[in-house]
């Protein structure tokens, strides 16, 4: 999970993870190694609301509820599930649509510092997740949200 193929969430141009260390992000992008990127705009399509909380133990319910409360207190209907979406893409890449591209990170001081740029390139070493793979699901973002919530609630329940 890193970067944005659109606006940022910590500055108008930069997503939090890329902004945390643009030089490191640029080094990774420039290395030419195979990289799959799950970016901010895609993650924001996968969210959960009060009616989506899975049955789970009290601690996990409290943690997920507290996370959801952040969005609700800001007037949003639900909260995006950022990192679990990236983890799911690593485990179940067939659920996502990818396109090859080149990735660049702005490292020059200024308003765009930390912004990521993705340029289509059939020979690019980066595979950018651009959406959800077509399949039988009527609402793939909702299906992915459900899978993420199940995984998070199961993992947290086993850790407590």
Q: Secondary-structure blueprint of this entry?
A:
Layout: H1 16-20, H2 22-30, E1 35-37, H3 40-43, E2 47-48, H4 58-73, E3 79-80, H5 82-91, E4 96-105, E5 116-120, E6 126-132, H6 140-159
Helix pairs in contact: 4-6
Notes on the protein architecture:
- Strands 1-6-4-5 form a four-stranded mixed sheet. Strands 2-3 form a two-stranded antiparallel ribbon.
- It has 160 residues and is α+β, with helices and mostly antiparallel strands.
- The chain starts with 15 loop residues before the first helix and ends with a helix.
- The radius of gyration is 17 Å and the shape is globular.
- Helix 4 packs across helix 6 (140-159).
- Helices cover 40% and strands 18% of the residues.
- The protein has helices at residues 16-20, 22-30, 40-43, 58-73, 82-91, 140-159, and strands spanning 35-37, 47-48, 79-80, 96-105, 116-120, 126-132.
- It contains six helices and six strands; from the N terminus they run ααβαβαβαβββα.
- The protein has one domain: Ribonucleoside hydrolase-like (Inosine-uridine Nucleoside N-ribohydrolase, Chain A, Alpha-Beta Complex), CATH 3.90.245.
Short description:
The chain is of the alpha+beta class and 160 residues long. The chain has a single domain (16-159), classed as Ribonucleoside hydrolase-like (Inosine-uridine Nucleoside N-ribohydrolase, Chain A, Alpha-Beta Complex), CATH 3.90.245.
| Main beta sheet strand tally, sense and closure | 4 strands, mixed
Count all strands and give the number.
6
CATH structural fold name: Inosine-uridine Nucleoside N-ribohydrolase, Chain A
Q: Please estimate the helix content.
A: 40-55%
The overall average pLDDT, rounded, is 91
Strand-pairing-aware structural class = alpha+beta
User: What's the CATH C level?
Assistant: Alpha Beta
How would you write the strand order of the largest sheet? 1-6-4-5
CATH homologous superfamily - what is it?
Ribonucleoside hydrolase-like
Span of the ends, CA to CA? 25 Å
Number of helices: 6
- The CATH level-2 architecture is identified as Alpha-Beta Complex
**Beta-strand content:** 15-25%
């Amino acid at each position: 999970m890193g970067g944005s193929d659109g606006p940022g969430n910590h500055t108008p141009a930069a997503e939090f993870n890329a902004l945390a260390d643009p030089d490191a992000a640029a080094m990774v992008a420039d290395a030419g190694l195979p990289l799959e990127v799950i970016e901010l705009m895609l993650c924001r399509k996968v969210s959960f609301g009060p009616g989506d909380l899975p049955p789970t133990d009290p601690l996990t319910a409290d943690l997920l509820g507290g996370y959801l409360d952040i969005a609700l207190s800001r007037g949003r209907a639900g909260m995006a599930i950022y990192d679990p979406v990236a983890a799911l893409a690593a485990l179940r890449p067939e659920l996502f649509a990818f396109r090859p591209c080149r990735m660049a990170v702005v490292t020059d001081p200024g308003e765009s510092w930390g912004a990521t740029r993705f340029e289509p390139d059939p020979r690019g070493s980066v595979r950018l997740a651009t959406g959800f793979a077509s399949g039988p699901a009527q609402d793939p973002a909702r299906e992915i949200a459900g899978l993420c919530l199940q995984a998070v609630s199961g993992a947290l329940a086993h850790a407590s």
